[in-house]
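Record format v2
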Amino acid sequence: MEENTIQATLEASDDLSNRFLTFGIDGAIYGISLTNVLEIIGIQDITSVPNVPQHVKGLINLRGKVVPVIDTRLKMGKPERDYDDLTCIVVIDIQDMHIGLIVDKVEEVISVDLEHAAVPPRTGIQEKQFLSSVVEHGNHTVLNIDLEKFMADDLRQY
Amino acid sequence: MSTVDSGMDSLFEAFIYETTSLLDQLDEIMLDSEKQKSLSEDNINEIFRIMHTTKGSAAMMGFNEISSLAHSVEDVFFLIREDPKRLDLVVDTLFDLVFQASDFLRQEIESIQNNGSDYAPADPTDLINKLEEQVAVMKGETPEAAPAAETTAPAAATSAEADKPSEDAKVQTAIPAGDDVVQIRVFFADDSQMENIRAFMLMTQLKDHCDFLDSDPEHPETDSSLCESIIKNGFVVILKPTYSLDDVIKVVENTSSIKSYEVLNSSDNAGEKNAEKSTAPAGKTSAGNSAQTPAAPAKPNVQSTGSSGKGVKQSLISVNQSKLDHLMDLVGELVTAESMVSSNKDLVGLKLDNFTKSFRELRKLTDELQDVVMSIRMVPLTGNFQKMNRIVRDMSKKLKKEVDLVTIGGDTEVDKTISDALTDPLMHMIRNSMDHAIETPEERVALGKPETGKVTLSARNVGGEILIDVADDGRGLDTEKIMEKARKNGILTKPENEYTDKEIFHLIMLPGFSTNENVTEYSGRGVGMDVVRKNVENVGGSISIHSETNKGTTFTLKIPLTLAIMDVMDVSLGTTTFSIPITSIKQSFKLTDDGQIMHNTDGTDMIMLRGECYPIIHLYEYFNIPTEVTDLKDGIVIQVESGSDVACIFADELLGEQQVVVKPFPPFFNKYNLKNSGLSGCTILGNGSISLILDIRSLLSSER
């Protein structure tokens, strides 16, 4: 019985690695690996913190835990936009830190066949390229984000 | 017997706890004594007592290796105790040997702790042999007394070694260990306390060795009033041994706090006499009390009798730290919940006299509860400092540098969590100072410094914070070398000539930085100051460095007194809430008269209060937060102080006073150095929103 549960958990975690949560930013659809996603919450009061880069919006209270939030639009260098009913915070776990990503809207969870996914070009121009793969899903293109790369500047210790 | 019985878990913890604190005590005594190059009579007795207790409890737990090593050390000190002059013969090697023994014991304890039932004992034979050599040296000088001591000590002290099988054999022959039921009368050591529980423990120990087991009085553990009768008449165990009486006797002998025992045999009175005779020297406490040394029979008896029972721990209990942590968390939640009730929106505008009164009562109780929980968790830094003594001693010998460690303010108390978190950073820093900073004696003499280097470890309590200085009088930090190294490792983030000395010093705390080319045993593994910084930051502290070439380096650790709970005044600024620790607030007031304000040419303002002039910090400017309240007369002015610095803070509005649970900023913010820009952490308010806690000290110093 117990073994079955463990097996199921293993399979589930196995499953997660090629499943992506997709969300919309400025009309485009991005995806992040479900292994990093902890939960999705609606937008809530954010306490701003002084002396930090503009895209670091501040802190939220996630059931007693203080979690920093980042505006994904600003992080991507896109113009800021007022939050609305669809705006969500995707709480991710990366390098043992919990971080909230503010996104325009959350779309769905998709399964991706990573072996057949297109790999974005890597040239000198795209040094800051943070996409891990590009896949077609339904009638739109999903740009999968490599969170480690995307957040590299924020995760650096100094 | 080295495998660990899971049923003995609590005994186990007690053993580890007791032995560790004994070893700490031993180190302390030895370090002190080594400084004075002699051992006082008290210290000799104390070491003897420590080793005796360790031996006893280790044997009880079945750790024969520990027990026999402790026994060897005990032997040495037994001889010294008899005639302190013998110490002179072995003083050179003795201290090192005892330190080695203490290290060995520590390692064993640690491995027991880590491995539990998989614990594989290390072999102390080497050490034991060396210790025995010392015994031989001492005995060589006084051939008369020595043999007597030698024969009595092991027989009296331990059967684990079975040095004198003849004693055991005698017992066996006296009472044919057949199927007869045997009674053993046990007397516990004077002052050993809780005799009834000890009796019960003995019973538990014996259970596995007997087919039948009963006692008089029965069920001693249920009634503490039985203690007196146990002291007076002894505790009689009625048993039928599974294997042999010998086996049972061994268990009894190995149980701590037993002064003496006698084997009674109801069916055979002759056996009783024999047994009494043979067991007398085998009793734990009668070391040195044999016929050959009638001169001082009483003294050793008293001393070693008190050995396992005496001590300061009687009114103390050891508590699992995770329980304390949980308690602390709960109290924190309770305080937040209380704030949620008191500032509940539903209560706004209601006149609730009775409610307010009851609530005040509740607040008083939670305050008290908090204070108690807090004080439970406070420990002095002495323990940490003590460990450093040991490191300095060992390293001085290895590196052939002479270094004195001066410790000041060891009685400063900090939260247990913080104290634990500080051990590693302090150790690293002391090692660094010893290894990199302090020069060799020759170099020091050439530089005109005293030959002996000095490392100072000082702690002091400054307004809700602990400052710990680790200072050396060594060569100081070499800015050029640091820059070179930083360049090589590619950790520079701006043009080199823009770096100030202070910033250069701080480079050494970045990951992957280590100034010493040679990796030594003690430092320079490339994990050094960055780990130190991380550890300190984890408990909400910060490090600053001050260094002068050839004068020395001082690392100052700024540590919060406790991680926990603070009284704060909340102020609003635009949409943000800030909390100011009440301890730093002198007064707050609404400005009515512009005349008090002076405008400097550089755009800053000053205020005149009772003839004194103070700077005004406009929080909205300082933190760059948009607000509508920019005129000094519209907002609130709060006069704050930190040490001798006083300034006035200008904010929008006072929101009220409350208690908050301090939370450090998530590690995500570490690199933005919020601690040096006037923020010490954040907290969750009663309404669920987050407020930023102002750090007045850094606010005032960065303002300057």
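Chain B touches chain A through 33 residues (CB under 8 Å).
Residues 165-305 of chain B form a domain with the Alpha-Beta Plaits fold (CATH 3.30.70.1110).
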